[in-house]
Amino acid sequence: MTTEAPSTLEDVLLSYLDNVNEEIQASMALWPPDFTHIQVHEVIGGMLARQATLAKEIAAAPSTWNGHTAPILLRAMADVHINLAWLMLDPPARCLKYISFGLGQAKLELEHRRAQLEGRDPTDQEAAMMDGLEQWIDSQRATFLQDVDLGKWSGLSVRDMAREADCIDFYNYVYTPFSGCAHSMWQHVAAYNLEMCGNPLHRHHRVPMSPDLEPDVSYMLLAAKYWDKSLSVFSSTFGLDRGAPSARKRLLAAISSAADTAEAEGIEDPASENRDG
Ligand SMILES: [Zn+2]
Questions:
Q1: In the chain, what are the domain boundaries?
Q2: pTM score
Q3: 18, 91, 143, 199 - which has most CB atoms within 10 Å?
Q4: Residues 30-50: tens digit of each pLDDT
């Protein structure tokens, strides 16, 4: 744990990264594996670690804190959260299902690569890659074998998963709006990559643009919020209590104390235009 009060934005971010690492490690230490259902530890632990990773990747890259890029990463975090919440309603069965779907996808990729060779021998590099993938699948086949499934891994839409897992608001207000950016849909492109032409004779058509945007710390705060949300669902599902203030709480305190210092010194507050998520 970082104890001294960080002052610059860089210090605030570095201690946030430390604190997230500490949170995931402390949480795993409180949650010993149940070897009769080891898939639960692997899948839920792995997904939780992925959520921590995404929060840290965003925190460490202020160049992504803008409307072009942050929503892509935040939408990935929304996916992790809804999947985790749904997995935790019936961990042993759903974690197996998650693994077997993933193995099916890997098997499909292997078949596509073989088909692409069209009868020629693979190069050494191709052969090594395909052998590696095949061994990775086979090493798990005994425990998790299932056919290639081309549908959704859970058999449900993300919306239905969110409804079952009691996080439909998160689906409606986070997952769906950020999907526009992640999939480059009209509602995103029109807002971020087109502007009205100034020529009145041109009947208000839109002109393509690629504006450079200033970093906005509120995107990073959303990432911290989603990581905290996933960790909270995990901790309450498994009855774990780390007994320490969360990385997010410490981050908000550090930002507010840095803002106070900046205000006293007459510097503009980086978090003043905070938006909700
Ligand atoms: Zn024009």
A1: 9-264
A2: 0.86
A3: 91
A4: 999 999 999 999 999 999 999
